[in-house]
Design brief:
single chain, alpha/beta, Rossmann fold, six-stranded mixed β-sheet, four-stranded parallel β-sheet, globular, binds ligand F0G
Length: 361
C-alpha cells in the first residue's frame, strides 16, 4: 500500500509490526480554538481531532495494527463488544482484511451513524439486551472458548496503534511551541487511550527522548452517570469498582467497568494528572463551543473540553498551561445528538421575497 510510512505507520518502529491492514489512519489535525482558549483561560488549548480518521474515530489506529496481527495469526472470525465506534472500525478493517466480523452492541444505546457503518461494512450486528459491560463479558467468553479473536482494547495490539495519538501530539507541540504539552485531557470509557498514551510516554522516557519532568499530565474525563474511574482516583483506590447502572447522553462512554483501569490508573497518578466527572449539560455546552469554532465532535469527545473547563474553574489546571484535548469521534457519528444540541430548521416559502422576509425578521 502506498500509504506505508505515513500516519500511524510512520511510527512503525514503535509498533509490533512493520505494516498493517491500512485505510490511511492517523495524521489527524491538531486544531487551534482561540475563542475556547480565551474563555477557558489557559495559555494554549489545541484539539486533537481523532474524528478525522477513516471511520471517524481513534479506533482506526488500533484496528490497523490489531487486524493485521489477526491476519498473521490466521484467525477467521473477529469480534468486539462496542458502544459503537469500535464496531464501525472493526467492521471496516475486518472487511479490508477479508475476515468475518461479529459485533455485540447494547440494544438501543448505540448512535445511528455507528450502527450504519457496522452494517454497511458487513459486520454481523448482535444486539444484546444489556449494557456495554455485559457485551464485553460475552465477547471475552467467546474469545476464551476459541470462537473469535477479540479486538476490544483488552487486546494489547490495539493499544500499540493508539500510542501514536500521543506521539503525534508530542511532535506537533514541539514543532509549534518548542515544548511538550503540560497536560492531555481525554474522555475515558474503558481507559484504553489513557493506558496507551501512558505506555507511549514511558517508552519515550526509556529511550531518552522525553524527560520524566516533560511527561504530560494525563487527565481523564467521564460523564457523571458513568464515572467509576473518577471515583477510584478521588478515593485513591488501587482498583475500580464496577458500576452496574450507567447512563449518559455520551453513549460512547456509557461504561461501568473500565477494563484497562489497571494500566490506566498508574498513568493518571504517576504523571500528576487527575480524573473528573462532567454533567451531560456541560458536555452539550462543550459540543456547541467546539462546533462554533468549526470543530464537529460527538458528545463523548466534547467531554474532554467540558472537563478542562471544569478543572480550570476549580483551579486544578493553571492559567499558564498548554493543553491538548482529545476529541475521539466525529459529529456525524451521532446525528441525533447533534441535531438536538443545534438549532432547528426554519420552514420558508419557495420564493425569494418570502425567504428574504423570513431572514430579516
Ligand atoms: N470516545 C469515544 C468516541 C469512544 O468511542 C470511546 C470508546 C471513548 C471515548 C473511550 O475510550 O475506552 O479508550 O477510554 N468507545 C468504545 C467503543 C468503548 O466500543 O466504541 P477508552
Amino acid at each position: 500500500d502506498d500509504f506505508e510510512g505515513r500516519g500511524v505507520w510512520r511510527y512503525a518502529d514503535a509498533l509490533p509490526l512493520s505494516e498493517g491492514v491500512t485505510a490511511q489512519e492517523g495524521a489527524t489535525p491538531l486544531y487551534e480554538v482561540p475563542r475556547l482558549e480565551e474563555s477557558i483561560g489557559v495559555q494554549a488549548v489545541r484539539i486533537k481531532h481523532e474524528g478525522m480518521n477513516p471511520t471517524g474515530s481513534f479506533k482506526d489506529r488500533g484496528m490497523t495494527v490489531g487486524v493485521a496481527v489477526a491476519t498473521e495469526l490466521g484467525v477467521d472470525r473477529l469480534a468486539c463488544a462496542s458502544t459503537g465506534n469500535t464496531s464501525a472500525a472493526l467492521a471496516a478493517y475486518g472487511s479490508r482484511g477479508g475476515m468475518e466480523t461479529l459485533v455485540l452492541l447494547p440494544a438501543g444505546k448505540v448512535a445511528a451513524g455507528k450502527v450504519a457503518q457496522a452494517s454497511l461494512h458487513g459486520a454481523r450486528i448482535l444486539e444484546v439486551d444489556g449494557n456495554f459491560d455485559a457485551c464485553l463479558d460475552i465477547v471475552q467468553d467467546l474469545a476464551q472458548q476459541g470462537e473469535a479473536y477479540l479486538l476490544n482494547s483488552l487486546n494489547p495490539f490495539r493499544l500499540e496503534g493508539q500510542k501514536t495519538i500521543g506521539l503525534e501530539i508530542l511532535e506537533a507541540f514541539r514543532e509549534d511551541y518548542d515544548a511538550f504539552p503540560d497536560r492531555i485531557v481525554l474522555p475515558v470509557g474503558n481507559a484504553g487511550n489513557t493506558a496507551a498514551l501512558y505506555k507511549a510516554f514511558r517508552e519515550l522516557v526509556q529511550a531518552g527522548a522525553l524527560a520524566e519532568s516533560e511527561v504530560p499530565k494525563l487527565t481523564g474525563v467521564q460523564a457523571e452517570g458513568a464515572a467509576p474511574m473518577v471515583e477510584a482516583v478521588e478515593n485513591g483506590a488501587d482498583e475500580v469498582r464496577r458500576w452496574d447502572d450507567v447512563e449518559t447522553r455520551a453513549t460512547a462512554i456509557r461504561i461501568g467497568n473500565p477494563v484497562n483501569a489497571p494500566k490506566a490508573l498508574p498513568g493518571i497518578r504517576e504523571t500528576g494528572g487527575t480524573a473528573v466527572a462532567v454533567s451531560d449539560a456541560a458536555i452539550t455546552e462543550a459540543q456547541r463551543d467546539l462546533a462554533s469554532e468549526g470543530v464537529g465532535v460527538e458528545p463523548a469527545s466534547a467531554a474532554s473540553v467540558a472537563g478542562l473547563r471544569k478543572l480550570r474553574a476549580e483551579g486544578i489546571v493553571d492559567d499558564d498551561e498548554r493543553v491538548a484535548c482529545l476529541t475521539t469521534g466525529h459529529l456525524l457519528k451521532d446525528p441525533d445528538a447533534a441535531a438536538a444540541a443545534g438549532s432547528d430548521p426554519e420552514p420558508v416559502p419557495a420564493e425569494t421575497d418570502g425567504v428574504l422576509d423570513h431572514v430579516q425578521n
